[in-house]
UniProtKB/TrEMBL annotation:
The keyword Disulfide bond does not apply. It comes from the Bacteria. This is Cytochrome c domain-containing protein. Residues 25-109 form the Cytochrome c domain. Keywords: Heme, Iron, Metal-binding, Signal. Transmembrane segments: none annotated. The keyword Metal-binding applies. InterPro entries: Cyt_c-like_dom, Cyt_c-like_dom_sf. Residues 1-28 form the signal peptide.
Length: 111
């Protein structure tokens, strides 16, 4: 499936918009589905490459929502000593956004 250019451009716009999204999510009491889909664009840039077996980045396939939430929360809390990028990334997300991302990537079509 020829996806890279599409996801790279989505990831770039996700990074550009994340400050605005954080502000709107805070005032609306949590991220909307649309907001989560934009946040998730930054994740698939790395993790779809993992799913394709072309990098050592782990695939997000096969995790339940609860497993994803607990892994992301552990990264955020600094409880995964061997981790490299995920602890830094997760410090930029609040618990509602982490819950939204876990829900998103638990859907087979999203990953
Ligand atoms: C720069 C590339 C990169 C980006 C962007 C990225 N990840 Fe990761 N992810 C990694 C790497 C590398 C690991 C392995 C742990 C580590 O070294 O931090 C990982 C591990 C994980 C794991 C644990 C998988 C397992 O097998 O235990 C989850 C869940 C995860 N990432 C979710 C996400 C989500 C959700 C996002 C978007 C907010 C995201 N990642 C963005 C590279 C990335």
């Amino acid at each position: 499936m020829p996806f890279p250019a599409f996801f790279v451009s989505r990831a770039r716009s996700a990074l550009a918009c994340s400050g605005l999204l954080l502000a709107t999510a805070a005032s609306a009491g949590g991220p909307s589905v649309q907001d989560v889909s934009v946040l998730a664009g930054a994740c698939v840039n790395c993790h779809l490459a993992g799913a394709a077996g072309t990098t050592s980045i782990p695939s997000l396939q096969g995790f339940s929502e609860e497993q994803l939430r607990s892994r992301l929360t552990a990264f955020q809390a600094g409880q995964v000593p061997a981790a490299t990028v995920m602890p830094r990334l997760m410090r930029g997300f609040d618990s509602e956004q982490i819950a939204g991302l876990a829900r998103w990537f638990a859907q087979p079509a999203a990953r």
